[in-house]
Amino acid sequence: MAPQGPSGHLLEVAELAQALQQQSMDVDFVLAELIENAVQSVPAAQYAGITTVFRDGTVQTTTATGPYPEILDDIQQRHCEGPCLSAAWEHHIIRIGDMACDTRWPSYSRDAAEETPIRSAMLFQLYTNRQTMGALNFYAEQREAFDDDAAELGLILATHAALAWNLVRRDEQFRSALASRDVIGQAKGILMERFGIDAVHAFELLKRLSQRSNTPLIAVARQLVESKS
């Protein structure tokens, strides 16, 4: 049986991150379990979530406990401002002691205080790349809920979550590469059968079609496969 209390949940978070590295697991399940254990590890935290922020300003709730993290993300999307956007792109840690009084993101803070009971928040940068950023977020209905000890514990959890997140992204990229290879293989087979050519010439034909139409090769291959079915 897993240990009880914050230290036990912290251990489970570490084990989940390690499990992702060692074997193939359902990504959504692992992230949901990770967030569930994370929120139980931080005293005073009532809700938690992982937010993905895109360079174009799109805000997406990847996983969350309870309804409020997603509502708060929607508010940030609405106003193009908020702590997740700042935690994701500019800072490593952000704390909000009283949502109703915070002046850093006035439109966000106003709507967050009106539409949710959340008053405290603590947000950590998870990862960054050219197109997206991720943030791990903790929320509480109590004002001034997160002290320095909570921030230190949250940083440890964010480190484990960042590891899990990177493994998730790597797995998705690998699966996407496999899917693309399969589609291109099917398209090559269609061309080989239709024109009586070998695999090398079929691939060269796909590349020429891609260049002439200024369309990504995978898109050309997918169109060819779909037209055949």
In the residues, how many domains can be counted? 2
Binned, the helix content reads 55-70%
Mean pLDDT reading? 85
User: In CATH's first tier, which class of the largest domain applies?
Assistant: Alpha Beta
CATH architecture of the largest domain: 2-Layer Sandwich
Low-confidence stretches: none
Can you summarize the main beta sheet? 5 strands, antiparallel
The global form is elongated
- Which strand order do you get reading across the main beta sheet? 2-1-5-4-3
Number of alpha- plus pi-helical segments = 8
Radius of gyration over C-alpha positions, nearest whole angstrom: 22 Å
- Output the CATH homologous superfamily of the largest domain: GAF domain
Strand content is: 15-25%
Order of helices and strands: HHEEHHEHEEHHH
> What structural class do you assign from the helix and strand content?
alpha+beta
**Which fold name fills CATH's third level, the topology of the largest domain?**
Beta-Lactamase
Distance between the termini: 51 Å
How many strand elements? 5
Structural notes for this entry:
The chain is an alpha+beta fold. The chain has 2 domains: 26-171, 2-Layer Sandwich (Beta-Lactamase); 173-227, Orthogonal Bundle (Arc Repressor Mutant, subunit A), CATH 1.10.10. Helices cover 60% and strands 16% of the residues. It has 8 helices and 5 strands, in the order H-H-E-E-H-H-E-H-E-E-H-H-H. Strand 4 and strand 5 form a beta hairpin. The longest helix is centred in the last third of the chain and has 48 residues, at 148-195. It is elongated. The N and C termini lie far apart (51 Å). The model has no long low-confidence stretch (mean pLDDT 85). InterPro entries: ANTAR, CheY-like_superfamily, GAF, GAF-like_dom_sf, GAF_ANTAR, WH-like_DNA-bd_sf.
